Amino acid sequence: MTVQTRGAQPVGTTGEQDAAAAVQAMFDSIAPRYDLLNHILSGSIDRFWWWRTARRFRHILSHPQARIADICCGTGDMTMALLRRRPPLAAPVLAVDFSHQMLMRGAAKFAKHGAIAVEADALHLPIADGTLQLLTTAFGFRNLANYEAGLREFHRVLAPEGELGILDFSEPGGILGKLYAFYFRRILPRIGRLLSGAGSAYAYLPASVGRFPAPREMLATLESIGFRDVRWTPFTFGIAGLYTARKP
């Protein structure tokens, strides 16, 4: 069982190249207020999600020579969470994003802490085959123009026994899910529009989560590509969750 070839598709786009360009332009436009809005709209619980993700991979992060990349790093909060668990004089973390404006704001945070900013597309990483011991991506994978192609690219750059962590939003079930869906689809876009002036970007967010494969489907796709030990760990009642996998 695999997901059909699909990925992010902002309103008005046709095809993967068009969708990727729209996503890139959207993140460039919201970069100046991205951090503030993230913390406000999530009630700052996003900080806990990054911390918990980094803690999950502490066994790799503790090795000074481990080769690590944070893909779709945005303004660098996941990158910083990884760096806080790196020992002194460790090999630098690669922080990759294709939004120039987001990446420059990230570099201002992490450049002095042992990370290198790399402006590149997650579907075409400038990283050699079998290089990385750890690849993470936080709230960025959902924005790829082709999810399956992204997972294949991650598999390519990971070394044997390398590990993958994908942190992203989900849609919880039950009564909580209905309440959250109301907030996510009705309230959050309005707050985002008022604070950022970019209404389309914060209307895109719930639409992109609705388009994203459910955990069961994502796990099946990871396995079909060749990953093993695939798991999904829900965070905060399933509002977000962490996919983990290993390249055998």
Essential attributes:
248 residues; alpha/beta; Rossmann fold; seven-stranded mixed beta sheet
Indicate the topology:
Elements: H1 16-30, H2 34-42, H3 46-56, H4 58-61, E1 68-71, H5 77-83, E2 93-97, H6 100-110, E3 115-119, E4 132-138, H7 147-157, E5 158-169, H8 174-196, H9 199-211, H10 215-225, E6 228-235, E7 240-246
Parallel strand pairs: 1-2, 1-4, 2-3, 4-5
Antiparallel strand pairs: 5-7, 6-7
List the quaternary state of the chains. Answer: single chain
CATH class: Alpha Beta
Structure classification: alpha/beta
Could you list the spans in which at least 5 consecutive residues all have pLDDT below 50? none
Output the CATH topology.
Rossmann fold
What best-fitting shape do the alpha-carbon axes yield? globular
Explain the overall architecture:
By secondary structure, the chain is of the alpha/beta class. Helix content is 46%, strand content 19%. It has a single domain, classed as Vaccinia Virus protein VP39 (Rossmann fold, 3-Layer(aba) Sandwich). It has helices at residues 16-30, 34-42, 46-56, 58-61, 77-83, 100-110, 147-157, 174-196, 199-211, 215-225, and strands spanning 68-71, 93-97, 115-119, 132-138, 158-169, 228-235, 240-246. The chain has a 7-stranded mixed β-sheet, sandwiched between helices. Helix 7 links the parallel strand 4 and strand 5 (158-169). It is globular and about 45 Å long. The model has no long low-confidence stretch (mean pLDDT 91).
